[in-house]
Design brief:
The protein has 165 residues and is an alpha+beta fold. It has one domain (24-159): Thiol Ester Dehydrase, Chain A (Roll). Helices cover 22% and strands 33% of the residues. The protein has helices at residues 45-62, 67-72, 149-160; strands spanning 14-15, 24-31, 75-76, 79-86, 95-102, 109-117, 123-132, 134-137, 140-143. The two termini are 32 Å apart.
């Protein structure tokens, strides 16, 4: 019998709590499991990175562009800058919502900002991630200053946030 996932990714129309005129943000809901924690039961710093990656891949899929399809075409979106400000610990069993906003591109950089929110509405961590688009050609990689049309449309849709369900 296959194991049933208790908390699949959830992406829908949401706003960041606590802001008077909130921007629309992508939503990924997760539960802190034993494999996400250190020996003290506190979420390990590397687990945050995995959830940030999952949030980006799921948001891309939600706007109609599978990351696997980009990769199959020789395109990648590697992280070139990353910072996480930890405000309060997440512990084994905590439910967490990762709210992600995509900002307009800055040159070749594609900036994402994410908040890790606790059920009580507090922010456990805030992350800033910059990506760039790379194209593989003849065994080399080059930064793409101009995005392919489908990726450009996807970035625009990501920047606008999710649409109504």
């Amino acid at each position: 019998m296959a194991a049933k996932r208790s908390h699949p990714p959830v992406l829908n129309t949401v706003t960041q709590p606590g802001q008077p005129s909130p921007p629309r943000a992508w939503r990924l809901q997760r539960r802190v499991l034993p494999q996400h924690t250190d020996h003290a039961g506190v979420m390990w710093h590397g687990a945050y990175l995995a959830w940030l990656e999952e949030a980006r891949v799921e948001a891309l899929a939600a706007v109609g562009l599978a990351y696997s399809a980009l990769s199959a075409r020789g395109l990648e979106l590697p992280v070139v800058s990353l910072s996480i400000d930890y405000r309060r610990p997440l512990r084994h069993g905590d439910e967490v919502v990762v709210w992600s906003q995509v900002e307009p591109p800055r040159g070749a950089r594609l900036p994402w900002r994410s908040l890790f929110e606790t059920p009580a509405g507090g922010v456990a961590a805030e992350a800033r991630v910059d990506l760039v688009a790379l194209e593989r050609q003849e065994g080399r990689q080059r930064v793409m200053r101009r995005l392919p049309a489908d990726l450009q449309r996807a970035v625009q849709a990501l920047t606008q946030g999710p649409g109504p369900l």
